[in-house]
Structures are given as structure tokens and as C-alpha cells.
Amino acid sequence: MHDQSPNHKPTLLHVEDEEDTANLVRLIMEANGCQVMHAADGREAQHLISSMPPPMLVLLDIQLPHVNGVKVLDMIRTTPGWDDVPVVMLTAVADEHTVREVFSLNVTDYVLKPFKPEALVAYLEQFQPTLSQGQASGSPSPRNGGSGPICVGNGPQMDMIQAAHHAADQDKNLVHVETSLKDLIPRFMNNRKKEVTAMQKALASEDFETVRTISHGMKGAAGIYGFNLISEMAAVIEEAAKMNNASIIQRELPLLNSYLDQIKVVYD
Q1: What is this structure's pTM?
Q2: 3-class secondary structure, 93
Q3: Is 110 helix (H, G, I), strand (E, B) or coil?
Q4: What is the CATH number assigned to the segment(s) 174-267?
Q5: Domain 11-127 belongs to what architecture?
Q6: Element (H or E) spanning 99, and its range?
Q7: Which of 29-38, 39-48, 122-131, 140-149 has the lowest mean pLDDT?
Q8: What is the pLDDT of residues 182-208, one digit of tens each?
Q9: Three-state DSSP class for 26?
Q10: CA dihedral of residues 219, 69, 124, 57 (deg, nearest 10)
Q11: What three-state secondary structure class fits 182?
Q12: Measured distance CA(177)–CA(185) in Å, rounded
């Protein structure tokens, strides 16, 4: 049992190395009455698991620096007091071997990035029904005891939160953003520009693995925030990096950089 008294906010552990995704999850969860503990890599997650009380819920990425999410999940399941904590994987990894390995460790759910932020609120209602802030009107899918994925993809569809969900517009350079995210967007955009520069430097030295890693993170973060064209362009670069195809990357990076300069964000 995980003691979450009414006088204390329920604790959630989020393990995610991509800064903007972590910031968005924190914003959503804190707005819905949770205290968020964040680990930026697998090694930091292992330290928290060994030093903090079991949380209400763990949100866990798989591709992490130092120690991957599968090993972190294994530690959770073998640590006294943590073995029955619900764990939801938030990841872009979709290969069958990894999915089977994760579910053999009794994961609660497996959600592919980019996910809809409102899906996260469903888990709060599922595992902490007494939360009074930001209550959803619908009911989340029941747990299946780790026998298979409940929610591969976008998760439960709900109307109560529109954070990071951008409307399509005839002008592809115009992106509508929920007003509550206004403070996050400048950093989000600045990080994308820095990542383009980093990929250009990595490509110059034929470091395709660094290009792949950066574009992978960009693809997920941009999709979650609703910048779908950024996500699509990053996905092309990621696939090219997997094939060590420098010509495609050389073509796509200037296009991505130019698009970043042209984006107009409108807060609704």
C-alpha cells in the first residue's frame, strides 16, 4: 500500500531525459494535484528508487542515458515496497522484443510517443480517484495486470484538458497553443534550434548516432507539444541517421531550421 493521505499531495516519479517532455508532464501533473519527482536518466532514477518512499505512479521512458528504462523497471519490481507500484511506459520504442520484455516485468501500461497529454490525467484518476483538481469526466481503461498493452498510442480520449494539443491551420507556419503552455514555448523553441546546431556538428564528423538520438528526442517532444511538422521532419532525419544516409540529413536540416524560424505561435 502507498500512503497518500489527504493532507499530502500524491507523489509521482517521472523518468525522462528529454527536457521539454519532462517540463510538460510536470506542468500537467502539478496542475492536477501531484508532486512530481523527476529523474533525467536511468542512473538518477535508480538512486531515487533506493532513497525515496514508493510513489503513487511511475512514468518511465525506455531510451535513457546510462541505464535504460527496462533495467530501471526491473529494479522497481525487485525493490521492497516498489514491487506493486503502477508503472506506465511513455516511450517511442515499439519493437516487439522490448514490449514483451517490459510486460514480463509486470508493467501496467505501454504508451507510445507522441502521446496526448490528456491521457496522463486518466492515469491520475485511475490510481488516485480522490484527486479533486482537474477531474476528468470519462473513465480510464482498467488495469490489466501487465498481461498486455491497454493503451498503445494516444491513450484514453478526454475533453478536460487541451494542454499541448495544437489545432491545424491553413497556414502551416501558424501553430495554435493552449495558453497554459505559454511559459514553456520559448524554451521549447530555443531547444529545437540548439538541437539543429548540434545535429549539424555531429553530421560534420559523421556521428550518425548522435544525430539519431537528438532527432529521436525532438520527434517525441514536438509531437507531444503538437508541433506535428517538426515531429515529421525529425522522424525523417532519425530514419536517415539509422541508415547513415548523410545526403538526406543534409537536405532536411536546413529545411527544419528554416521552418523553426518561420513558426508563428498563437495562444488560444
Answers
A1: 0.79
A2: coil
A3: strand
A4: 1.20.120.160
A5: 3-Layer(aba) Sandwich (3.40)
A6: helix 96-104
A7: 140-149
A8: 999 999 999 999 999 999 999 999 999
A9: helix
A10: -160
A11: coil
A12: 9
